Amino acid sequence: MTTAIHTEQTSPDVAGVDKHSGKDVLLKVRGLRKHFPIKSGFIFSREVAAVKAVDGLNFDIYRGETLGLVGESGCGKSTTGRTILQLHRATEGLVEYEGVELTTLKGNKLREMRREMQIIFQDPYASLNPRMTVQRIVAEPLLVHGIGDSKSREKRVADLLELVGLNPYFADRYPHEFSGGQRQRIGIARALALDPSFIVCDEPISALDVSIQAQVVNLLEQLQADLGLTYLFIAHDLSMVRHICDRVAVMYLGKIVELAESEELYTNPLHPYTQALLSAVPVPDPNVEDSRQRIILKGDLPSPANPPVGCNFNTRCPVAVDVCHELEPDLIEILPEHWVACHRVT
Known about the structure:
By secondary structure, this protein is α/β, with parallel strands linked by helices. The protein has helices at residues 7-10, 77-84, 107-114, 134-144, 150-163, 180-192, 210-227, 238-244, 262-267, 272-279, 286-291, and strands spanning 25-40, 46-62, 66-70, 92-97, 100-101, 117-120, 198-202, 230-234, 247-252, 255-261, 332-335, 338-340.
């Protein structure tokens, strides 16, 4: 997507306040791209193409809010979160956290900034080292950053386990002795160890049983209220996103196609892709469910190594016209705080 968001509308002033919305901007992303090279040859390999996992994102995250990021598998959601945290280094673009540009930081300066930004991984079975006790897992960030002595770290781990609803006496156990929900609570405790302000929740409930998902979401909401946290919440479950998120950004093939406040997006979706996604969300009222129009998208998701010319969605869009196959749509503000990238929406 092109950077059509006007500077006077989205750029924060010196104090970090968005002049357009009046809200305190914690994180600013402009023109963010992450391309993974495709190489050919065994000895003298050369780059022949690139997978455009993230391809020109522009958005702000306000202090204290939860911004949801939704879309199909492979659209670049997790890569976006990891690139913001510099776990993947950006190919191009700007990521500012409280006015500090992260993409140019290296070494100790980047390590210091990472104390403020943490991540909760998707799979609690793969993200915890099976050879380490819970005590070592949760205390590892403190060790890496040289915080406290062994006794104070042990006390901190006990407090964190209690904070996420686990018995501190479990600290000497190993991950395989816990259920999936308990393991995810351990991952949350580890993310909180350094008192961060911003946490990327990378599909933190998708690997859990449905009965456990609500408990973990309620825990995240309670921690946000108690600790003043800001979340980027990456998920597939649109019903859960509506419940937990203040605003929602919809991604398709590496680009944001729609961004709005949660209730506005769910009641008034403007982009054809958003409309198709929301039409798939079950409604508990059978009368409403029977009367709804289900939008079935045709075709497969194009390859991010070879995206379509023009709008990325034109190969599957039911209302595409000639201009959609020729020009890439800008992300523009159609309604107050409601941004859409579509030639058909005016």
